[in-house]
Amino acid sequence: MRLINVSSLQIEEFYGTDIPPYAILSHTWEATEASFQQWTKRVTRIRKFKHLGFEKIYAACKRARGNGLGYVWADTVCIDRTSSAELSEAINSMYAWYENAQVCYVYLSDVRIPSRESNLDVLTLFRRSRWFTRGWTLQELLAPSNIVFYTREWVQMGTKQALAVLIREITGIDEGCLRGTRRVTVCSVAQRMSWASRRVTTREEDITYSLLGIFGISMPLLYGEGSQNAFRRLQEEIIKVSDDQSILAFNTDSSDNTLLAHHPSDFASQGGVRPSFAPKLTPPFTMSNAGLSLTTPLIYTMSPYWVLAVLNCVELHWAQEDVRARSITCLPLLGRDKKFMRARAPVTLISLGVDLVGNQGTLRSKHIDSTPEVGGSDSDSNTALAESTSTIAKTTPLEIQDLTTRKDTDILVTYFSRIYPLYGTEMDEAMKGFEVIDVGPSMKIPDRGFMIAFPRGMGSYRYLDSFPKGDLYPNISFFMPSATPPTSTREKMEENRGNVTRGLLVYSHEMAGRFKPGFLEEIEIVGIYLALDSSTGNWTCRILDLERRISGPDLEHKWIVKGDEMVLDKPEEWPHYDQQRNMVVAARTRFETTKGHPCKEAIMVEIVFDLKELLKERDLEG
Which residue ranges does the record annotate as region Disordered (predicted)? Predict the structure, then answer.
């Protein structure tokens, strides 16, 4: 390690434990900077004394002498950049050098003390400083424990600790990391990547190389390999030493790679992602020439080609200074037979809400005790249903926030070029609904719809039927109900509540026999009633107990009317959760689709058929 002697201004070299206490300079490079060759020539140092590249090093040496330090390190003159071997060693060591410095002087050449006539204050200029946009200065902000900021005139502005709140607002970096109360290594991979997502470097590979120390990675520098190859190598090295699956929590839509990210900017919106700290060890995942071998719980859909992988990380949602909600990060995957690639449509990541802070234990849905037989005339049906809705359970179960299974599945996540030859024709046919839905010449793509998911699988239940039939797209697991309530029902609703569309999904227990239209038989069936109200923007989900004697032609009207009578009044109070016997349905997560297909906004409906087993799992977790 080379250091500048602040008294003689000569460069001296030190090794290992012989390195003396030193100050370190952080700055942004200007058009003309001092070099190692120039600084070692005394005549050149004197002649260029007033040049900014030299002047700031002189000023840093003066500050160090005033702080009782004998040495200063500056990247421009302490590294011989004509030697590629030395440059590589320095870049791999730089985080440690900043971390071990007694003090770091941050020189902001574009922040001047404003004149009295200026409308700008120094903190406004501080926010706008170029120093916060450069790739290399991220590690220079994180590594040193003691940082002092200076203006162009070398007027002290404050320390990192004193300005931590402001710096957090500028950079998005965790305030604990800035104050030194939280180690950078505790932050998730996705969170650290997000800090670099809006930073730039002169050489394209440097946006990757500037992150080596932040992730504790050492690797060869290959200038000329391109930013994508460099960033891929960094991610592969991180996977070798970390079990943090948030490295997969990036926006696939901005990358044409179906496995790893192309650039830190793919993580721009992932600043709230944290390690999950689940009460179990994360199974190892490894990279090979076949792809990424991963062991994780899966959330299934109605499509045989589309699942959601539950990653071992959570996203925190903030309101002012408090965490208001926590969500699991789910990775949509396309493929089958445990071989998948990342999906780009209808969404690249889903944050599945599992913990509503401040709302736990709140009653959000009403539960019907009795379910009368529905039959006879329409008027008889409506009368019976009106009477049934007055019977409310005396006790209501609390919402179960996390419905996902704890059972892991071994899968391979690989590249498009490997998956498409295997299942391309079938996937194209099954998944085309993500691109085009035939809504007729006078209609438009729906604003909202439901995505149907089974966080614990379907067990012994099977899909039986739907109403309206044409509104369910099982191959993509989307349901866009378009049916409006009949006039007889709308008359019982409050005024201006006619902007409701609704539908019904019907499932049967396979052990109770198979449904055969036209035959009368006893089967166990259950209905999931879903409704949308465009006037309030609200939606609802309900479980309808439909265990009775039925025949095929009786599917549509009498089942859907029962749901209408239960929930259509007061849409602004509609619940997003229902629990009956051994079932749960929840619709608490909504997200925008990437390309507006098959609808502009999707509401994820989670259906659980084994509530008792779910509760046993949670009891074992304590």
Answer: 365-388
Cis previous bond, 598, omega within 30: yes
What is the pTM for the complete model shown?
A: 0.84
| E strand or H helix at 326 | strand 322-336
Q: Which of 249-258, 356-365, 582-591 has the lowest mean pLDDT?
A: 356-365
Amino acid at 12: E
Asked whether the beta carbons of 415 and 291 are under 8 A apart, the reply is: yes
Pull the structure tokens for residue 115: 């004149």
Name the 3-class secondary structure at 100.
helix
Contact criterion met (CB below 8 Å) for 54 and 5: no
Phi/psi at 55 (5° precision):
-60, -40
Helix (H) or strand (E) holding 235: helix 227-241
332, two tokens: 């949509």
| Phi, psi for 594 (deg, rounded to 5) | -70, -35
Please tell me whether the peptide bond between 468 and the residue prior to it is cis, using omega within 30 degrees of 0: yes
Task: Compute the distance between CA of residue 470 and CA of residue 491 in angstroms, rounded to an integer.
Answer: 26
Distance CA 112, CA 120 (A): 10
Cα distances (angstroms) measured from residue 522 to each of 371, 496, 515, 528, 550: 17, 41, 9, 19, 7
Contact indicator for 466, 479 with CB cutoff of 8 Å: yes
Give residue-wise pLDDT tens across range 2-25. Answer: 999 999 999 999 998 899 999 999
Are the C-beta atoms of 535 and 557 separated by less than 8 Å?
no
